[in-house]
Write a structure and sequence with these properties.
28 strands, 665 residues, single chain, nine-stranded mixed sheet, Glyco_hydro_42, Rossmann fold, TIM Barrel, glycosidase, Beta-galactosidase, alpha/beta, Immunoglobulin-like
Length: 665
């Protein structure tokens, strides 16, 4: 066993003589796993009553004969043209109220009985056909679930969902605060999906009724989860042991992955960062995907070996970056490193998307050589990291409900973005070199010394009490402006801000000042003066110690950052949108209290991450994201698993530009 290596393979797009060349190249690159059948619904079901698996049979048989393992997709991510023609209700209605016709992908109404029946039947027939094939090691349901539908079927589904959630209209009206603007509902059929035709103006984030929009977003996430479960349940009728997954998209706003996670046998995701300097962001997203399953290793289901094709500008990965980012995924918990795509498509929208094998089929390109070299390294590594866990003592809470509620709110500021706030606090932890778990608000927090809850806008269940418990036993809790504002229905708490977090934080906030991005209010933190932007809460300490103060405007000299003793621990409240230097200063104070620091906290872009194998072996990953070499003293001794070199504590370590070292301690 080893870290799986390969990716999306679409041989149905090519004559079979090309397959022979593909497998020759796969041998060279040490490709051992292929994902097949992702978009072949039209091929395998040419009409409603006809199924033809002959091509897929040959694809799976060839993979098995060549010694490859198969991640077999259900093929349902794009419905066929005949289906849209025979059942036009299957296509979506968009946010603007336009009924779509056949085209693209992700165009199936998740509430359509026809789509649900036929997609499940496709999964059922595939599972029955291939369940006994030992080459099939995983089932891949759908692909990158996304989008929303506002058709009559979804409206009816939404009302059914609401009936189950609220049981009666009195509860719904109270949750949505419908006495505002004469919105009281007296019949379930009066409820409309929130769209550009009903509650919204200027797009999906501007809504008159946040409660309605929030619940519809939740409903869409649940509706697509039901589609996934339709297919998973159909697979389980004949394939009871092979794990089932679907590929997530990291910090994708549209779906609450925490709700999906229990229904995946392992998490998997597609890593397409917005630029080629996103190493900290990627680290956080890997941590988030690992956190979905309580630290269980995940699969990196897709990444490009070179460039994408879906953006206005698609930069090329510099030499060494693909290898470095692949090892970063392994460092954060990946037990599979897979690409999209194995061979470049010759036409349509992804013909210029990067691939292991380009249009010419050459094996002497830089990209192919780098893939082959990575394949050889993964062979050398063997099973050393399989099943290994991350021993994090720091957690960041990530909450889709808070994200949705914050960004559909009218006020205080539409410039404040949930992701940006979370990533700033993660960046500070990443720079300090500490291992981090990114977890839900329902996660067990008892294992952590530090819990960071940036912009925890919505408080659900007993999260406030569990955060108090972290501090009471000696831990530290950090939260920020716009936290503790609303309940699960997006209604304001009828108490001082930050609501149920007030006792832990020892502060009260009566007013807040939102300003344009160019407005700066400096904040003094000890001897350091940093900038703050966007939002400035006016804090009245209720027992908390003042750590940082505003330097301008009528509230100059008042608290911007506070620390409150609670039990044996502390609660830190950051009331201002500090710049990265300010956030990092706060987090270093917190980490120092607990003696938490990575081995190289002051070496820019030298990332470290730890995994602990099932037998207790500790593996320290060192990843140099710099375009220049870095030399540091060894903080631990061990053997570099990639080169076999023995390292002694204190000896100089020379890390080439964009290089990787894995020390088995």
């Amino acid at each position: 066993m080893k870290v799986r290596f390969g990716g999306d393979y679409n041989p149905e797009q090519w004559p079979e003589e090309v397959w022979t060349d593909d497998y020759r190249l796969f041998d060279t690159a040490r490709i051992d796993t292929v994902t097949v059948g992702v978009f072949d619904w039209a091929l395998t079901q040419p009409s409603e009553d006809v199924y033809d698996f002959s091509t897929l049979d040959r694809i799976v048989e060839r993979a098995a004969a060549e010694g490859r393992q198969v991640c077999l997709a259900t093929g349902t991510a794009a419905h066929p043209a005949w289906l849209a023609r025979a059942h036009p209700e299957i296509t979506r209605v968009d946010f603007e109220g336009r009924k779509h016709r056949f085209g693209g992908r992700h165009n199936s109404c998740p509430s359509s009985p026809v789509f649900r029946r036929l997609s499940a039947e496709m999964a059922r027939r595939r599972a029955a056909r291939y369940a006994g094939n030992p080459a099939v090691v995983a089932w891949h349901v759908g692909n990158e679930y996304s989008g929303a539908c506002y058709c009559d079927l979804c409206a009816a589904g939404f009302r059914d969902w609401l009936r189950k959630k609220y049981e009666g209209l009195d509860g719904l009206n109270a949750a949505w605060n419908t006495r505002f603007w004469s919105h009281t509902f007296y019949d379930w059929d009066e409820i409309e999906p929130p769209s550009a035709l009903t509650e919204h103006w200027r797009g999906p984030d501007h809504t008159a009724f946040q409660g309605i929009t929030l619940d519809y977003t939740r409903y869409m996430s649940d509706a697509m989860l039901t589609n996934y479960l339709d297919e998973k349940n159909a697979i389980r009728e004949s394939s009871v042991d092979v794990p089932v997954t679907t590929n997530f998209m990291g910090m994708f706003r549209g779906l609450d992955y925490h709700k999906w996670a229990p229904h995946l046998d392992f998490a998997s995701w597609d890593n397409y960062p917005p630029d080629d300097t996103s190493q900290a962001r990627m680290a956080f997203t890997h941590d988030l995907m690992r956190g979905l399953k309580d630290g269980q290793p995940f699969w990196l289901m897709e990444q490009t070996p070179s460039f994408t094709a879906c953006r206005d500008v698609n930069p090329l990965k510099r030499p060494g970056v693909m290898r470095l980012w692949s090892w970063q995924a392994v460092a954060h918990g990946a037990d599979a490193v897979l690409f999209f795509q194995m061979r470049a498509s010759r036409g349509a929208s992804e013909k210029y998307h990067g691939a292991v094998i380009g249009h010419s089929g050459r094996d002497d390109t830089r990209v192919f050589r780098e893939v082959a070299e990575l394949g050889a390294e993964l062979d050398t590594l063997g099973d050393a990291v399989l099943g290994a866990r991350t021993p994090a003592r720091v957690a960041i809470l990530f909450d889709w409900d808070s994200w949705w509620a914050l960004e559909i709110s009218d006020g205080p500021s539409r410039h404040v973005k949930y992701q940006s706030v979370v990533l700033a606090y993660h960046q500070a932890l990443w720079d300090a070199g500490v291992d981090v778990d990114a977890v839900s608000v329902t996660a067990d927090l008892s294992r952590y010394d530090v819990v960071v809850a940036p912009a925890l806008h919505m408080l659900k269940g007993d999260i406030a009490q569990r955060l108090e418990a972290v501090a009471a036993r000696g831990g530290t809790v950090v939260t920020t402006f716009l936290s503790g504002r609303v309940d699960e229905h997006d209604n304001a708490f009828l108490m001082d801000v930050p609501g149920p977090l007030g006792t832990l934080m020892g502060v009260r906030v009566d007013e807040w000042d939102a300003r344009a991005p160019e407005v700066i209010n400096p904040v003094r933190l000890g001897e350091l003066v940093v900038e703050s932007r966007l939002l400035f809460e006016l804090v009245i300490p209720q027992g908390a110690e003042v750590v940082g103060e505003y330097q301008s405007d009528f509230y100059a000299g008042t608290p911007a950052v506070t620390r409150n003793a609670y039990g044996d621990g502390e609660g830190w409240y950051v009331a201002a949108g500090l710049d990265q230097a300010g956030v990092s200063w706060v987090m270093r104070q917190v980490l120092d209290r607990h003696g938490l620091s990575g081995p190289y906290p002051d070496v820019p872009d030298l990332e470290t991450a730890t995994r602990v194998a099932p037998d207790g072996t500790r593996l320290l990953f060192l990843l140099n994201h710099n375009a220049v070499p870095v030399e540091v003293p060894a903080r631990v001794g061990g053997v570099d698993l990639l080169t076999g070199t023995r390292v002694e504590v204190g000896q100089p370590l020379s890390l080439a530009a964009r290089s990787v070292m894995i020390l088995r301690q």
